[in-house]
Amino acid sequence: MVVGAARARGELPRPWGDPRVHAMGPDPDRILLVGAGIVRGLGVASHELGLGGHLARRLSALTGRGADIELVGVPSLTVTAARRLVDGLQLERYDAVVLMLGAREAIGLRNPVVWERDLLDLVTTVRERGVPALPVFLVSIAPPPSVVPFDGVIAPVVTRHVARLNAVLDRLGALPGVHVIPFEPGDALGNNGLADTATYAAWSRPIATGMHAVLDDAVPVRPAGVTDEQLRQASLDAMGILDDPPSAELEALSRVARDLFGVDGAAVNLIDHDRQLSKSAQGFPRGEIPRSESLCATTVEQDGILVVEDAQRDARFSAMPSVAGGVVRFYAGHPVEAPDGQRVGTLCLFDAEPRPFTSADRSLLRELALRVQAELWSHVRVSAR
Length: 385
Known about the structure:
The structure is a single chain. By secondary structure, the protein is an alpha/beta fold. The chain has helices at about 1-10, 35-40, 50-65, 80-85, 105, 110-130, 155-170, 195-215, 230-240, 250-260, 295-300, 320-325, 360-375; strands at about 20-25, 30-35, 65-75, 95-100, 135-140, 180, 265-270, 275-280, 290, 305-310, 330-335, 345-350. Strand 11 (about 330-335) and strand 12 form a beta hairpin.
C-alpha cells in the first residue's frame, strides 16, 4: 500500500512540536484527546491542520467558548497502552476526555470480551482520577477504508469485527458520565490513501457535534485550591527563565496588551516562591514585590482568568499597598503555564480606575496570554519540555 511504503521510507507527513492546540474564546474547555494515528495527525505537518486543530475551532464555534485541546497521539495505540499512558497525566486538569481507540484491536481481531475488560479499566481510571462529573467520550471505530486503507480481501473481516467492538462501546456508553459518539466518516481519505487537512476537518464535525451538548449541560466542577505549590514551583524552576532578560517579543506583547485595552499598565509576572517577579512590564518599572502583595498570586492559585473590576471594593485585595494607594483598582490576569500545565505566572492588566471587562475582552486577553506562554516556552531548556 502507498501508506505502508511511505511509512517505511519515513516520508509520511506528521506534526512536530507542542501537541496542544487552542481556539479563541473566553472560559475555554480543556480537553484531552487520546488516540492513534488519527490523533497524531499523520498526513499533515501541523497539529493546527490535523484533527485537534479542526476539533478545537469547531467546538469553539458551537459553544461560544475557547477550546484548549491536548493531544496524546501514538500510532497503533491500543487500549492497554493508553491505560499506561494516562498514569503519567494530570487528569484533574481537564474538563473532558476523548478516547479514539480500537482501530488496532479491530485489525488484530482482538477478543471483544477481553477488549471490553481493558476499556472498562481505562474509562474507570479516567473517571476516578479526573474532576467530579468529568465526561468521557468514546468515539466509535470507523469501518475500513474510512481511516485506514485496506485491500478488498481483509476489509469485510475487519468491518465485521469493528461492529463487534462498537457494540462494546455502546454498552459502556450506559455508564454514568460516559458518552459514545458515532463516527462514520465514509470513504474520506485524501490522495494516495493519506489524510489531509480537509479530511481532518470532515472528521472533526461529528465529534464536535457529539461533544457540544454534553459540554454545555455538564461542565465539571473543579475543586477550589487544587494547586500543589511544590509541583508548581518545581515546574517554574525547571523552565530556567527566571534570570533571563525579557526578549523583544515579550516586551512587544506586553506593550500590545496595554495599548489594546487602553489601561495604565500591563505585565508578564512570574510567581517565584514568596515573590512576584516581573519579566516584562509596561506602565511601571520591572522588579519584584512580595507575593502577599500580588494580585497575580491569586490568579495562579485558581483555574482561569481573574477579573477584579474594582479592587478597592474587594476584601481580598483592598488592603494591598497598590490597591489602597490608588495605583490599582481594575485588574485582569490570565494564567501562563509551564509546559507540564502548572500555572507559573500571568499576563495581567491594571488601571487606576474601575472598569468593566466583557466576554470579548476575556477572549482577547486569553489569546495574548497564549502568545506570551509560547514565547516563554521558546526559551525553556529542552529538558524541561
